[in-house]
User: What shape does this take?
Amino acid sequence: MSERPLNVQPAAETPAVTPPLLEVRDLEVHFPIPGGGFLRQSPHRLRAVDGVSLTLTEGETLGLVGESGCGKSTLARAILNLVPLTSGEIRFAGRSIGGLAEREMRQYRQQMQMIFQDPFASLNPRMTVGNIIGEPMQIFGLHPPRDRKLEVMRLMELVGLNPRFLNRYPHEFSGGQRQRIGIARALAVHPKVILCDEPVSALDVSIQAQVINLLTELQDKLGLAYLFIAHDLAVVRHIADRVGVMYLGRLVEVAPAADLYANPRHPYTRALLSSVPTPDPQRERRRERMVPSGEVPSPDRIYPGCRFADRCVMAAMDCLHSSPPLAGDDHQVACFFGWDEPRYQAALRQPR
Assistant: This one.
């Protein structure tokens, strides 16, 4: 009698987890506050970034939103090592950048470039466009000198500029064209990550759309990863895969863009989204607004509890004395209540 072959099913393959290209762990950037006397400093410190952790994978766009002064731009500059870290760790491609030698730091900065907010102030008015875009190639020793002009022209064409204008100066271009020059300069060293520090906030709305579409096209062509900083929630919704919300130096919510806009779980995120007008007049009239009370607290204070507690309609005693951690899987939120709708409705009915 022949043996019946066993029907062995092949083991299911474990899906590969893409390691983060950029990883920030418990990052803090504190600045000393000058005191009243000569060479004296106040014992207080301005906590611009106070314990931020985030990840960015290859080809991903992480949007970062929040009020002015919440620490978004300082975080970006700290990632580029342009401001000293108080504590925390930054890892790129699995390697910590802390303690890198000068040559290794140059290689790191070649992989991480920045597009600045102001296209008028970020370009040297005494240099031609060709020299502005070609200077990073010279600094990092990319391309033979005889080939750099051709590479500059290629980059100008890539970002939608006429290569024949490479001998013109920045003042001869419009604001949108200057920002394209800044983008071409960032691309000149073939980076993997670009930090976009409010790159469209100084532009007209129609030009904003063109620049956003350009960044999206470049990401598809070159496989770039973006950390996209903005205060315009509509712009971030259009370009970001995930969105992080910062408040007073900390991340209070991180989630996939569609989930965060459809189901915000932190009271501060809900307040931000309630301030965005909708094009439908009837829907706009029915929409319930959440306006935080009071002003943004000072970043030099030490907060034992949630930093939003003083302005939150849902705050309880625990919120004043304990700091909620940023917790969750795909949708992370730093709130003890994780957005409790019945509690919020009851809080609205209470006199304040």
User: Anything to note?
Assistant: The first strand starts at residue 22 and ends at 34.
